Amino acid sequence: MTHGEHHEGLELLNELKKEFEATIIHELLPGILHNFANPLNGIMGRSKLLQKRAYDHFKVGSPEDPVGVPVSAGEEKIIKDIDLIAKETDRLFDLFNDVAGKIYRLQDLSLQKINVSHLIKCEVAFFNFYLDFKHTVEKELRLDWDVPDITGIPADYSMAISTIIRYSMSAMKMSPAKKLVVTTCHDEKYVYSVFEDTGIHELDQEDKDFLSTLAPSRQPFYHLDGKSGLFNALSLLAKYHVRVDLDSTMDSYCLRLRIPC
Questions:
Q1: Structural fold of domain 111-260
Q2: How far apart are the C-alpha atoms of 41 and 63, rounded to whole Å?
Q3: pLDDT tens for residues 141-164?
């Protein structure tokens, strides 16, 4: 095979990969999650049942209210192992829900009520699957759980918030300090979401002025030196009359969203 033939084959392979990747979110992942859900629910149910039976058999109360009845070292080890299995099963179920929730949000195009604080909590939990974000970025969530619901399409808000977080991730990649702080609060008319990070940003005054007057756009922004995603995310929210305020220097970054409720 000549070099040209090899190159042509590589282009065909890459094109087929693109077609395959286009099916992942809307066709493949829902099926994968569905196929995992049934055995996972079975494992959860059996682990809880096994845990209860062990406590009953060794007469040491229950997992919720253990009683300090003396048992042998071997029996104690069995109980601890079963407790650990039940705990890790719960953790696996939470991780599964983090992925499933994200996929379902991206597919949900219906107009409905959304709790911004709960959505942000779920989006940050999903981002822990990015290992750099999980292990190198300090996260602080200051969430107001009494915020009123807003009205919107889950896919819009999920994609916009995750893009904002991903923009912060990129900005912090070369920063010695990596911290993301997300705050929510509200008043009678608005829900406020504030994103602060310690990244290195290159947003000038023209960018700030443009974002503060951003209008809904049907055409995506391209070639904005790493800022395209942020501009597209905020443009997506403009149809909900979300107001954007941005304070950014080389040492600090604060993005505020004012969302009508």
A1: Heat Shock Protein 90 (3.30.565)
A2: 19
A3: 999 999 999 999 999 999 999 999
